[in-house]
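Because showing beats explaining, we think one record worth quoting, sequence and backbone structure tokens together, and here it is:
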Amino acid sequence: MVPSAHVNEHSPPVGEAYSLPEGRDALLIHVQGLMESADLHPRAVAGQATDMVALARRLHDPELLGLSLRVLAWTFRALWDETSARRLLDEAVRISRKHTLAHVEASALVSRATVLQDMGRTAGAARDLDDALAAVDRASAMDPAERALLHGRIRLSRAVLDQNAGRLLAAEERYRSLLAEGELDVSRTVIATNNLAMLLAERGAFDEALQHADASVDLCEQAPGLLAPAIQTRAWIAVRAGRLREGMHDFEGAARAYSDAGIPLGEYYTEFADAMMDLRLLPEAATAARSAVHELEESGGSLMATEARLRLARIALLTGDVDGARHHADAAAEAARHQRRAGWRDRAVLVGVEARLEARSVGVAEVGTARRAAGRLERAGNLHSAVEAYLVAGRVALAVDRPRDAIATLVRAGDLARNGQVLVRLRGRLAVALAERAARRPAAALEECRSGLRDLAVHRSALPTIELRALASGHGAELGEIGLGVVLAGGSPARALAWMERTRAAALLTRFPASQVPMAQRRAGSVAGSTGPGRGVVVADTAPRVSADDWSRRVRASEGSGVPHFRGLAALREALDGRTLVELGKFEGRLVAVVVEPRHARLVELGAEEDVVTELRPLLFALRRLANPRGVAAAEAARASAELRIARLRALLMAPLGVGEHDELVVVPVGMLHGVPWSCLHDGPLAQAPSATFWVRTRAAARAREGAGRTVLVAGPDLTGASEEVEALRDVHPGALVLASAGAGAEEVVAALADADLAHLACHGSPRADNPMFSSLLLADGPVTVQELHGAGVAPHRLVLASCHSGADVAYAGDEVLGFVSAMLAQGTAGVVASIAAVPDVAAVDLMLELHRGLRDGLPLARALHAARGRVDRSTPEGFVNWCTFSAHGAA
């Protein structure tokens, strides 16, 4: 929905002196013109509207007064003073009804419905719209053209109401019908087109959404007051569609348009925060949200400042800042209470309850608080918020051991969600699954989980980028865990593994078509937001603007459907060819492993994930200290700590598995275990994979590609020893293509890697934990992000990343993982060697030489790395770090 314009004052300014027209008819025409201007430039007409109300009162003219009150109310709405706007509109409705002025009543009711929507009172807004239609039908003397315009305006308000209440299909049908019939004026055509674009983006129809967004922006030539929000909507859609550079450019354009119109940037920052949250760029999201709160409070926009503060609370929850989430939620709830906006207060209260639930500080009182908020939101017609509220209430009831209350509340969430959009239905499925589990009906709970994950797979497959798909999988995280608990109780390793594979690394399974835009053009101006909140965000278009049909054809032609499909133990054992697979899962904080050996499969309980994290964090800290030791004593202390943690992790993760000491393993981690240095926990060769299905795919690629292609060696700038490393490797691979110094730019590297059998990149790496697709490698012409490499379709058959943190892929909710390694594997690379931590630059050369000698002699990456690690001098701090941190991924 296109938001109102922002101004600095708390009340309408008095306009400059002007002459009122003479005669009643001229005054009525004048006030009608003021209303048309108020839609686009409310500040400019506020003073005139005030004068018109005063004049109408002196003249005792009810028609003129009713129309003037409506104009004045609209200027108050533009200032976010909805209480004053409603008071004026209440008076306009009373006067028009008293004097049977049906056309004035209809117009006032439509405006009041909009104000009630702003206040979160959708049920009251719906009644006003119904009454407005009835009033139009009674206004027999109304001009037919005016009647048609008013009908269109009421139907548009109905569509907006449906959209805000979560009835998205109904809203889409209304928008399409209105636009096809052409009954709207230009400004409302912009709003309908803009809102239809947002709806289409919500359900993944990005190509059509951007066509409507373009049309909305073009129409703003005739309605310039709506240009800034229209550009902003297009920016948001472009980001959601994966066209990040395009979206960031539009965000900059929206900021300029707001500034040119003299409108504070509070709303711009709010929308930018939403876009950054979609990309999981949480520091940028938090910065933008804080800027929104500051700007809106400074400009007097207390209503939208409350909404921005609620966004801050949600961002804090995502980052694990429970205290911050509670503080901002409580502040937003208190502000909304003073503003008499019950819907926003209930939303804020629920975020506060979620924060307390996360902190394990809820009691029976919070059950009642959440249920009352849910009931109010349901009665107000806010489907999305009501479903979420009942789900929160049910969770709290379970946490305080009130299963009956929990079941009733969760079932209500499921009932409400049944006809909602897909993400609302998923929340409903989760609620019912929780209820069935609480009622001790595991089969029914499992069926809800299956149905929900099927819906999620369809939704995820419509998303155009790997990171959006990974984030979408988070909506099914709890469904996956609940289902895993049910199958684990059955004790079948095969069923447990099949269920784990259902939710494992699904976002990686589709190989996206490579962008047709040259790398130089994609990277031009890619550091967006030079003066705004996006300053320093490096972006690149990952989804070129092609038609939906063409994009679908290209995706279908690529490998994988995005829906995990586990082929069973027999096919897995054939691919493993004597290796042992260990796939880890997590249920209620406990770790479990499925061990698939050549003749048997077993379920093994490993203990609490928290115990592993307790050892992992100090291990990584010790390795970081050893990579850059500050004196002999510090190095010895760090070495002792690292060896202690490794021994404990071996006891926690490897000893219970009962595998042979020198067996070759394929390990599929889960959650935080992606950050474990697995190579140093097992004495035999070991490879990691995002999923068993994915490892089978890389195994097939390895068998098909053996011996083809060339070797490419790349040395990035400002890295001690990089050039020496590459020169040494040239002796191992005579005839290799070497790119160093100025020749190692992004365009040259991408072109060289396109048909490489083996690539070695010795470059500085900059990890980004909140969104690893924005991690980067430093090349001769600047940093190139994982996102850019993935979008360019870079996929050498085998890849060695000899840079810090290059293997530190990040786990996402829903058993997804993103980073350098997973992005390369997703695009078709069959094997990667990378480090999960900082590595000593010069000391890594010996390990790399041994690794490449093994590869030259025909060993797969896992065995070549194992042999190379066996020759490392672990007595030095640098050698020990290299022995610990490098791991192989995939089967090549």
About this structure: Residues 1-17, 525-531, 554-562 have pLDDT under 50 and may be disordered. The longest helix spans residues 632-654. The two ends are 50 Å apart (CA to CA).
